[in-house]
Amino acid sequence: MAFWSLKTDGGAVALLDGSGASLTYAQLARRADELAAQLPQSPARTVGFLLFPPTFDAVSLYLGALRSGRHVPLLLPPGIHPALLAELLAKYQPEWIVTGSEPPAGYRQRLQTHGSALYVRMDPAAGALPVPHESLGLLLSTSGSTGSQKLVRLAYTALDANAASIVEYLRLGEGDRAITTLELSYSFGMSILNSHLAAGASVVLTNETLLSRGFWDLAQKSHITSLSGVPSQFAMLRRAGLEKRGLGSLRMLTQAGGNLSEPLKREFKALTDRLGSEFFVMYGQTEAAPRISYVPPARLDEKLGSIGVAVPGGALDLDPSTSELIYRGANVMLGYAESRADLDRGDDLAGVLRTGDIGRRDAEGFYFLTGRLKRFIKLSGARVNLDDVEKILVNDFDTPLACVGTDERLVVVLTESSSVTDAAIRELLRVRCDIYAGLVAVERKSALPLTANGKVDYPALMRSLS
Amino acid sequence: MAKPLEDVFSETLGIDRGRVVDGLEYNSIKEWDSVAHMALIAALEENYDIMLETEDVIDMSSVGRAREILSKYSVTA
């Protein structure tokens, strides 16, 4: 049964919030259908943008769209940069949008919900737009920056399959309770919601962060059983003193969204051992809805650098010639979309995902990542395509530069003769790519190293920096 | 010699010094999110040569609260 069917015993609690309010499964199902009934009732399937805050109504609308089988939402962060939103609106021309900010031109308000409103497009020529394929359930973005807006097309079956396999390997049950620590529009954040609903468990919705007293008071009062984060949030859990936060009900920590340093893995493994809970280190991609692999907690100490084994129902393999990690499973996306017209495409990948990561496998079948085919890094869990960022900077500053980096830091290398200031680089990255200045280093070299055919030699550049 | 509190905030968050007032709250502006808060904690510790307790880290909910908390560490902020 798919998680959006909400078939758990209707009286069980599905969602809670910071005000002490809660929604049962029955109430959530009713609200979901009530809100979905307000979406455009055209005969054709629709596309909508859901700027997704952690509220009952936003979650209800998300589930309502899935339950309707007719409305395909693109999940976006509520704080999305206006330029990026404008670019997406122009490209995908959604029939509806849910936002807490000003509506775009050409849309009128249909419904006011808590903190947000639903707007529908007035344009009567709507019928002329390409209609989303019948298997398409949801759209997610792969990047927070402008200029590289590839969307991931996920089938209903992929969402259902991944939620079910997460329930299986985390052994989630009705007694479990998560709390939002990530954007719900981010595939990892979304998957926590999906999998808990699939298990008949509950989720606490909050805007508070791991570094605020309010978060920990709510977590304790709500008796949460799991906490999840990307690598930068594990550094926060350490600073917030997780062990002192009195979470007696905590059953598991889960980590994904990039490589967590081995010292932090060791520290949190030891901590969960002391607390009698489990630490799940996981790997995934939005393209797989998103979970691909996990390390069984009992094996973590001996497989510290590993991404583990495939999730239930999936299979991992290596390309014999390139060693690229290849994942097969029902949760693999249908394909990418770069325009509205792409939304009526069917299944381009047939369940086979080339991850772009290079890997190896040990004798026991555990996988390890050794590099990437494409130049991207993950900063605070968000994928940053170095070539795209480089293009944005070069277009704006018209000066020779190169972007390299690790999952901890983006390094922008300029030549010494460039008059562009460090502050200008940081400001543009913040505004255009939503990258926090503290994660950016600016370096200056007499010249950028080049390969024989005149391209920037990135490996040489990386070596010269370390 | 420690820098004034306002300078540490302004430099770490990348905002004008004029915006650093006691009423400015954590998570109320884009520039002061959790990633920036981690950097801010580290910058305050370095500036005043102190180690903040975990309780103080999660209580530092505004510029004003930061000033109060730092006073417990016998530093002039």
Mean pLDDT of chain A: 92
Helix content of chain A: 25-40%
Shape of chain A: globular
Instruction: List the strand order in the largest sheet of chain A.
Output: 4-3-5-7-6
Largest interface (CB within 8 Å) is between:
A-B, 26 and 21 residues
Indicate how many domains the architecture of chain B comprises.
1
Terminal residue distance of chain A: 51 Å
The largest β sheet of chain A comes out as: 5 strands, mixed
The sequence of SSEs of chain B as H and E is HHHH
Oligomer: heterodimer
Task: Output the CATH class name of the largest domain in chain A.
Answer: Alpha Beta
* Biggest beta-sheet profile of chain B: none
Unreliable stretches of chain A (pLDDT < 50, length at least 5) are none
Question: How would you name the CATH homologous superfamily of chain B?
Answer: ACP-like
CATH topology of chain B: Non-ribosomal Peptide Synthetase Peptidyl Carrier Protein, Chain A
Any idea of the CATH class of chain B?
Mainly Alpha
Quickly describe the structure.
The complex is a heterodimer of chains A (466) and B (77). With 466 residues, chain A is α/β, with parallel strands linked by helices. Chain A has two domains: 3-369, Rossmann fold (3-Layer(aba) Sandwich); 376-465, GMP Synthetase, Chain A, domain 3 (2-Layer Sandwich).
Any key phrases for this structure?
heterodimer, A: alpha/beta, Rossmann fold, GMP Synthetase, Chain A, domain 3, 2 domains, five-stranded mixed sheet, 26 strands, globular, B: 77 residues, mainly alpha, Non-ribosomal Peptide Synthetase Peptidyl Carrier Protein, Chain A, 4 helices, 51% helix
Descriptive overview:
The complex is a heterodimer of chains A (466) and B (77). Chain A has 466 residues and is of the alpha/beta class. Chain A folds into two domains: 3-369, Rossmann fold; 376-465, ANL, C-terminal domain (GMP Synthetase, Chain A, domain 3, 2-Layer Sandwich). Chain A has helices at residues 25-36, 56-68, 82-92, 156-170, 187-198, 213-221, 231-239, 262-275, 386-397, 422-433, 458-465; strands at residues 13-17, 22-24, 46-51, 71-76, 96-99, 107-113, 116-121, 136-141, 151-155, 177-179, 202-205, 226-229, 252-255, 278-284, 291-295, 309-310, 315-318, 324-328, 335-337, 352-361, 367-372, 376-379, 382-385, 401-405, 410-415, 440-445. Chain B has a single domain (5-71), classed as ACP-like (Non-ribosomal Peptide Synthetase Peptidyl Carrier Protein, Chain A, Orthogonal Bundle), CATH 1.10.1200.10. Chain B has helices at residues 5-13, 34-48, 54-59, 63-71. The chains are: A alpha/beta (466), B mainly alpha (77). The interface between A and B is medium-sized, with 26 and 21 residues.
